[in-house]
Design a protein that fits this description.
258 residues, alpha+beta, 2 domains, 38% helix, elongated, disordered N terminus
Length: 258
């Protein structure tokens, strides 16, 4: 009888020890997947899916805090939540990528009678089609002074022309990302696959004007690709928790034609 009791006690200790190990690998993988979903602009394209993942992350944080204060730690539930967070994050990431691709397809079908991107009016009808890829999920800043970040190694914006043009220029108001170890920012501009110019973005907010070759224009969709030489996240620079690879802040982008 004593041997049986001891056996059950030993089994209980083994099970308890198994659940008392922090599932750090699963937690790291789940949270990395959540950051990938954010980088895929899930907040812009599938906000409800990202919200579900963020709620799971909050639930995981709370469960880990509860176990930290517990005398007999058991991470079984934390491991379950980490798995749920991973699944929710992967879904948000995939859904965002699909929604973005669907948006590109629709943008090719729908005429876009706008030649100016102003973050204060970014959510006007059809304005969402201006931003193709490489942009922050939503405008930031105070009302009337909003801006949008270009993110990553390339940001694309499109404008629609309903007739041919003989000349034109790109106008934009911008400010570069700054921080420890960040060097001079240069922005290379391409129009419909043709390199136009590279300009230095000074470390202050100011307007820029760039003359555009008439031969590069097309009737219909005209795509600008903005390629920075520098992009970095506040987290990497040690200045904040933001993981987005920021390059240039834009308050206005406009295509002016004659």
């Amino acid at each position: 009888m004593k041997k049986t009791i001891l056996s059950f006690a030993l089994l209980g200790l083994i099970l308890l020890a198994g659940c008392s190990q922090l599932p750090q690998e699963q937690i790291d993988a789940a949270r990395a997947s959540l950051e990938n979903a954010k980088a895929s602009e899930a907040g812009k394209y599938v906000p409800e899916a990202l919200k579900a993942a963020l709620q799971k992350n909050e639930e995981l944080t709370a469960e880990l805090a509860n176990q930290e204060d517990s005398l007999f730690k058991s991470y079984g539930r934390a491991e379950e939540i980490a798995k749920e967070l991973l699944d929710a994050s992967l879904k948000a990431d995939e859904d965002a990528r699909q929604a973005k691709e669907n948006g590109r397809i629709e943008a090719q079908k729908v005429p876009i009678p706008k030649t100016e991107l102003n973050p204060n009016q970014l959510w006007e009808p059809q304005a969402k089609y201006l931003l193709l890829s490489g942009w922050s999920a939503s405008p930031e800043g105070e009302l009337g002074q909003k801006y949008v970040w270009a993110v990553g190694e390339r940001s694309s914006v499109q404008f629609w022309l309903d007739k041919s043009t003989m000349s034109g220029r790109l106008e934009f108001t911008a400010f570069p990302v700054t921080g420890p170890g960040i060097g001079e920012q240069k922005l290379e501009v391409w129009l419909n696959g043709q390199r136009v110019e590279q300009v230095v973005i000074e470390p202050r907010e100011r307007p820029y004007v760039m003359e555009l070759p008439a031969a590069a224009f097309k009737v219909g969709k005209n795509q600008f690709d903005l390629v920075p030489t520098v992009f970095a996240s506040p987290k990497d620079m040690g200045t904040g928790a933001d993981v987005r690879k920021l390059s240039v802040l834009f308050k206005r982008i406009a295509l002016v034609t004659n």
